[in-house]
Design brief:
Elements lengths: L1 H16 L35 E7 L4 H4 L7 H7 L6 H4 L1 E2 L5 E4 L3 E4 L5 H12 L7 E6 L3 E6 L4 E4 L7 H7 L12 E7 L2 E7 L19 E4 L3 H34 L1
Parallel strand pairs: 6-10
Antiparallel strand pairs: 1-2, 1-5, 3-4, 6-7, 8-9, 8-10
């Protein structure tokens, strides 16, 4: 009876320790058909929201000194601060809760709900009323992603105009084997509130989905796979039984020695 029980427990432990191929591979079966040779992706252009931080530089080739009156920092100090995220408030323009930024001479300008290109055009039109050949560059400084769960925890700063889920996973050290790749949670900040999405990163159709690309301020949570809880329970049970067995064996050994 005891042998059967231990054999059953052993089978359970071995079974729980096995991970199915389809649970660990990304975009399963991608590239196996000719239709996969070119996949059209869907990218939603980001629109600025309150609490974002923008990098804005206004330049002029005819009168560069005049253009500097608009800028928050000089080119020299900007080069010193730019690559340190803790200094973004020094060189950037935070968007207030009303959706406005404040630029010297130009005053308060509504930017929430606009794309980077739209903001560039808006500022350029206003700046050219003062400096005829003003050129404007706008970038998003606060492009950060938060990752949690079976992938490590922390914030990742994206130094590009866009990034996809796999790039974020790579920056975070990849999803652990204990993570559930079939049900990754994305929490996305929108003007209406937090929207939640679930994605299966083993599904090759993810690449053509709008959710393939992350958006600024996304929170990505990788929950543990259900089998992970089973493994932990069985491992704890096996450890408990082993401990009890050792105690019983030791007790019997001591008892036999005493009886001699």
């Amino acid at each position: 009876m005891h042998k059967r029980f231990f054999f059953f427990l052993l089978v359970l432990v071995i079974g729980a320790s096995c991970t199915r191929y389809k649970d660990i591979v990304y975009v399963r079966d991608l590239g196996k058909t000719t239709s996969d040779s070119l996949i059209k992706t869907t990218y939603t252009t980001y629109k600025v929201q309150a609490s974002d931080i923008l990098y804005i530089k206004i330049r002029s080739s005819i009168n560069p000194t005049a253009a500097e009156i608009f800028n928050k920092t000089s080119s020299t100090s900007e080069n010193t601060y730019y690559y340190n995220t803790s200094n973004y408030y020094l060189i950037g323009y935070p968007v207030d809760l009303g959706g406005y930024i404040n630029i010297a001479v130009l005053g308060d300008i509504k930017v929430a709900g606009l794309t980077m290109k739209e903001i560039e055009q808006e500022l350029q039109n206003k700046a050219r009323e003062i400096v005829s050949d003003a050129e404007v560059v706008v970038r998003l400084l606060s492009f950060k992603i938060t990752v949690l769960g079976e992938i490590g925890s922390g914030q990742k700063n994206i130094m590009a105009e866009r990034a996809n889920l796999f790039e974020v996973f790579a920056m975070s050290g990849d999803i652990l084997k204990s993570g559930n790749k079939h049900n990754v949670l994305i929490m996305r900040t929108t003007p209406e509130g937090i929207k939640t999405f679930r994605v299966d990163v083993t599904d090759k159709n993810l690449i053509s989905s709008p959710l393939f690309y992350v958006q600024p301020n996304d929170i990505i949570y990788v929950e543990p796979a259900k089998i992970t809880a089973v493994r932990l329970t069985l491992n704890e049970l096996a450890l408990f039984i082993t401990s009890v067995s050792s105690v019983v064996t030791l007790s019997l050994l001591v008892y036999n020695l005493v009886q001699k």
